[in-house]
């Protein structure tokens, strides 16, 4: 796990109770209103990312279309929606970002991460999966949704200094350790 982030340093600028408008008190992950008893908990947001490789064992990256980290390389994936399980969310994200449907993928790694967006910090819990695409599927890849482009990188030439999030860099380092020796 990354230790360079302080626990509970999440930037979440809620100051007043949405029910009674008195000042909120914050105790680490919970906002409390002493006046009316209102409680609001901060929870990590689950996300997914997929290490997709082709027949040559190159890895697929997408270029982020939007902040945070616009223009940086990312693994395809995203936030889990309400009423979705992780498998459904993986398939949906890959379909939206790459235009293909993946059926086989397996769990590989997880780490938490901090996602800063419009003055608020969200802590994500990133679940990283691995999958393969066939030569036929490769022809149908088409970047869409929040990906502007995609590219394949050889395992020894991953764009580590331009990869959007530390959790993904950690997953790729682990992946490289395992598959370099295969
Ligand atoms: Zn209140």
Automatic annotation (TrEMBL):
Organism of this sequence: Candidatus Kerfeldbacteria bacterium RIFCSPHIGHO2_02_FULL_42_14
The protein's name: Nudix hydrolase domain-containing protein
GO molecular function: hydrolase activity
Cofactor(s), by name: Mg(2+)
Keywords: Hydrolase
PROSITE patterns: NUDIX, NUDIX_BOX
Nudix hydrolase domain sequence ranges: 42-176
Keyword field contains Transmembrane helix: no
Family membership noted in the UniProt record: Belongs to the Nudix hydrolase family.
CDD domains in UniProt: NUDIX_Hydrolase (cd04681)
């Amino acid at each position: 796990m990354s230790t360079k982030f302080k626990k509970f340093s999440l930037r979440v600028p809620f100051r007043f109770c949405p029910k009674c408008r008195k000042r909120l008190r914050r105790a680490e992950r919970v906002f409390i209103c002493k006046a009316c008893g209102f409680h609001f908990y901060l929870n990590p947001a689950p996300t997914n990312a997929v290490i997709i490789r082709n027949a040559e064992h190159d890895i697929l990256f997408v270029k982020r279309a939007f902040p945070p980290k616009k223009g940086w390389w990312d693994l395809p994936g995203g936030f889990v929606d309400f009423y979705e399980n992780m498998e459904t969310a993986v398939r949906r994200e890959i379909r939206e970002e790459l235009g293909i449907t993946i059926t086989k993928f397996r769990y590989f790694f997880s780490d938490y991460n901090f996602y800063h967006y419009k003055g608020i910090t969200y802590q994500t819990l990133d679940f990283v999966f691995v999958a393969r695409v066939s030569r036929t599927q490769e022809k149908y890849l088409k970047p869409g949704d929040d990906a502007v482009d995609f590219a394949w990188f050889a395992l020894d030439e991953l764009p580590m200094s331009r990869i959007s999030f530390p959790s993904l860099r950690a997953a790729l380092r682990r992946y490289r350790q395992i598959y370099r020796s295969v």
